[in-house]
Design a protein that fits this description.
Blueprint (H helix, E strand, L loop, with lengths): L7 E7 L1 E7 L14 E7 L18 H8 L2 E3 L2 E2 L5 H10 L3 H4 L16 H7 L3 E6 L12 E5 L9 E4 L2 E4 L4 H16 L6 E6 L36 H5 L4 H4 L23 H6 L15 H21 L3 H36 L6 E7 L18 H4 L3 E4 L14 E2 L2 E2 L6 E3 L3 E2 L3 H9 L13 H4 L18 E6 L11 E6 L2 E6 L5 E6 L14 H20 L6
Parallel strand pairs: 3-10, 3-11, 4-15, 5-16, 6-7, 6-10
Antiparallel strand pairs: 1-2, 4-12, 7-8, 8-9, 11-12, 13-14, 17-18, 18-19, 19-20
Length: 558
C-alpha cells in the first residue's frame, strides 16, 4: 500500500533521535521538541459489552471510561481474525494472518524476522517494551525490554520470562503486570528517548479467576439473559456444529469453579481442576500444583464453598442449569474486569503524576471481542458481531488539540455518555493499529503494511478525504478470515466481508455454506437471508467487493 505522507517530519536529537511528526493530520503542538510516547493497553477477550463507555447494562468501568471521556471511542472497531495469537500478529505487523504467517494457535511460532512496528520505532530512536501476555510462541523481537507471561500465564503466582530470565512472581497477574509497567516507566527506560510500551493483560481470559479482593463483587447483579440466548441456529449449519455453548460446553468445574474438595461432582477428565482451585496434589492422581498461597486459598474457599454446596443441593437441570451457568459466568467475568479497570486507574494516576499525559498517546483495546451469552455462546472465533467487534478507545496527548469528527448522540451501544465523548464511526480494524502508531511517531509506513492509519480521523479529516491504498477515501468494507479448524470449539474455517449494512461469510473446509445478514434489520444475526430473493439482488455487488478485498490483501480465493 502507499503510505500516508506527513507534510513535514522533524527529528530532534536528545541523546538519541526523537522523531516528531508535524503536518495537517498531526497538528501537534507548541512544544515539538517533546517526544511523542505511546502506551498500548490490550486485554485478552475483553468484550465491548462489558465496558460501560459502550454499554452500561452489565458492569461499570470508570477508569477505562475516563480514557474515553478524554479521548475517542471507536464504535465500529473490528479484528481480522478473532483469535488471540493471530490477533497479536496482526497488531504487530499491520498485516492479515495469511501475510504474517500466524493463522491460528496450533503449535505456531511467530516469525520475528518480519517487519513489525516496534522494530521500526526502535530503529528510529524509541525505547520499546512489552509487558504481560505475548502468546506467540517465540521470544519478542524489536523490544528494548520484554517481560512476558510464560504461555497463557496464570492468574495467581504467574511465571514471567524477563529478557530471557524465568521468574515466579507472587500476587495476582493484573496487579503484577501494572507494577512491572510502572517500574519500567520509572526506573528502567532511557528517559532521554521517546517510548512505546505494550501492556498486555491476561485478564479476562478463560477461566475468569477474580482477584480475592473482588470475589463476590457482582453477586448483587442479576444479569439479563441475551435476547437470543436460546438460539436454535436454524438456517445456520456452521453455528449448529460449534462446541462453545454455555449450556452444553461450559464446564462446571474448570469454568465455573465447582471443584468440591473430594472431587465427587467433577467429571474424571476435569479432575485436574482440583489442583487449580484447591491447591496441592493427591497421591496417585495427575493434578496441577496449586497456584494460590495460603491466604489466597482461604479467601477463595470461603467464597466458593457455599456456592458449591448450594449447587450440590439444587441439582439443576435443563434450562435452569443453563441460566445458572450464565449467571456464574457473568459474575466471575465481570469481577475479573473490576481488577483490570482498577489497574488502568493506577497506571493513569502514575502518568498524571509524572506529567506523561502531556505527550503520550494511550490506546485501550482487546485482542478480539467475546460472546457474553449471545447465541448461547461464550468464547469468540466467529465472524458474528460480538466476536468480530472489539473495543477501541484512544486518548491523544493533552497537547494535541482534539477535533470532533462528528458526535453521535446515539450509537449501536446506547446513548453517548459524557460531554467528552468523541465517537468515530468509520470501520477500523486491528491491522490499522501499526500504521496509526507509526504515523503518530513520524515513522514512514512500509509498503507491506496492509492496514491504514486512522490518525487523520481523530484529527478531523473527513472519511472521504482520507488518503488510503484504494485512493477512494476511507474503506467501506472489512475482510475477515478464521482458520483454526479442526480445533477447540469446532468453529469451522470461514472468511467474509462486512459492509455498513451487510455481513457475508463463507464456511469451508469440511463444510460449504454461506451466511448473509442484514445488520440494519437483523442486528442479532438470527436470520440467514443468503437463499432469499432479497439476497439475489444484493449478492452480486457483495461478492464483487469480497473478491476485490481478497485480491487487495492477496488472500487466495477459497
Amino acid at each position: 500500500m502507499t503510505a500516508m505522507k506527513l507534510n513535514e517530519v522533524r527529528k530532534i536529537f536528545t541523546g538519541a533521535a526523537a522523531v516528531t511528526a508535524i503536518g495537517s493530520c498531526s497538528d501537534i503542538s507548541e512544544s515539538p521538541e517533546q517526544p511523542m510516547n505511546i502506551i498500548y493497553i490490550m486485554c485478552d477477550d475483553h468484550s465491548y459489552q462489558t465496558i460501560s463507555a459502550y454499554d452500561r447494562t452489565l458492569t461499570n468501568t470508570p477508569n477505562i471510561d475516563r480514557l474515553c471521556d478524554e479521548g475517542y471511542r471507536f464504535t465500529n472497531s473490528f479484528v481480522a481474525n478473532s483469535l488471540s495469537g493471530p490477533s497479536r500478529a496482526c497488531l504487530l505487523t499491520g498485516k492479515h494472518s495469511h501475510k504474517n504467517g500466524f493463522t491460528d494457535n496450533r503449535d505456531r511460532i511467530f516469525d520475528g524476522n518480519q517487519t513489525t512496528f516496534p522494530k521500526l520505532l526502535k530503529e528510529n530512536g524509541y525505547e520499546t517494551a512489552v509487558i504481560g501476555k505475548w502468546h506467540l510462541g517465540s521470544e519478542p523481537v524489536g523490544f528494548s525490554h520484554w517481560d512476558i507471561l510464560d504461555g497463557q500465564g496464570e492468574y495467581y503466582q504467574p511465571v514471567f520470562i524477563c529478557n530471557g530470565d524465568t521468574l515466579l512472581r507472587p500476587g495476582y497477574v493484573t496487579d503484577i503486570i501494572t507494577e512491572q509497567t510502572i517500574d519500567w516507566l520509572e526506573k528502567k527506560r532511557d528517559k532521554n528517548k521517546p517510548f512505546c510500551l505494550l501492556v498486555h493483560h491476561k485478564a479476562p481470559h478463560r477461566s475468569w479467576m477474580p482477584d480475592v479482593c473482588d470475589l463476590g463483587s457482582h453477586d448483587h447483579v442479576e444479569f439479563p439473559l441475551p435476547e437470543n440466548f436460546e438460539d436454535n441456529y436454524e438456517g445456520r449449519p456452521a453455528a449448529s456444529l460449534q462446541e462453545m455453548t454455555i449450556e452444553a460446553d461450559m464446564n462446571t468445574a474448570y469454568d465455573l469453579k465447582i471443584a468440591d474438595k473430594d472431587g465427587a461432582m467433577i467429571d474424571p477428565e476435569w479432575r485436574w481442576t482440583l489442583g487449580m482451585y484447591r491447591g496441592g496434589t493427591k497421591e496417585g492422581e495427575r493434578l496441577r500444583p496449586g497456584r494460590m498461597d495460603h491466604e489466597q486459598q482461604e479467601a477463595w474457599n470461603s467464597y466458593y464453598d457455599p456456592i458449591i454446596e448450594d449447587f450440590r443441593k439444587d441439582s439443576l437441570e435443563g434450562k435452569e442449569l443453563a441460566e445458572w451457568k450464565y449467571q456464574r459466568y457473568m459474575k466471575d467475568y465481570c469481577s475479573v474486569i473490576k481488577s483490570v479497570d482498577r489497574n488502568i486507574g493506577h497506571l493513569y494516576e502514575y502518568l498524571e503524576k509524572e506529567g506523561l499525559l502531556e505527550n503520550t498517546m494511550i490506546i485501550y483495546t482487546s485482542d478480539q471481542g467475546f460472546f457474553m451469552g449471545e447465541h448461547g455462546f461464550f468464547d469468540k472465533r466467529f465472524m458474528y458481531e460480538e466476536s468480530f467487534r472489539t473495543p477501541l478507545i484512544v486518548r491523544l496527548p493533552d497537547r494535541m488539540e482534539r477535533k470532533r469528527p462528528g458526535r453521535a448522540e446515539t450509537s449501536v451501544y446506547g446513548p453517548n455518555f459524557g460531554k467528552g465523548d468523541y465517537d468515530i464511526s468509520e470501520m477500523v480494524q486491528n491491522i490499522d493499529i501499526a500504521p496509526t502508531i507509526l504515523e503518530y511517531a513520524g515513522v514512514e509506513i512500509p509498503e507491506e503494511i496492509q492496514g491504514e492509519s486512522f490518525l487523520g480521523l481523530m484529527k478531523g479529516t473527513s472519511a472521504k478525504d482520507m488518503k488510503t491504498d484504494t485512493g477512494k477515501g476511507w474503506r467501506d468494507a472489512l475482510y475477515y478470515h478464521y482458520y483454526e479448524y479442526p480445533g477447540e470449539h469446532a468453529v469451522r474455517r470461514h472468511y467474509g466481508i462486512r459492509t455498513e449494512r451487510y455481513s457475508l461469510m463463507h464456511f469451508y473446509h469440511d463444510t460449504d455454506s454461506w451466511e448473509l445478514y442484514d445488520l440494519k434489520n437483523d442486528p442479532l444475526q438470527m436470520h440467514n437471508i443468503y437463499h432469499t430473493p432479497e439476497a439475489a439482488i444484493i449478492l452480486p455487488d457483495l461478492m464483487k467487493q469480497l473478491h476485490e478485498l481478497q485480491m487487495l490483501y492477496e488472500d487466495p480465493i477459497q
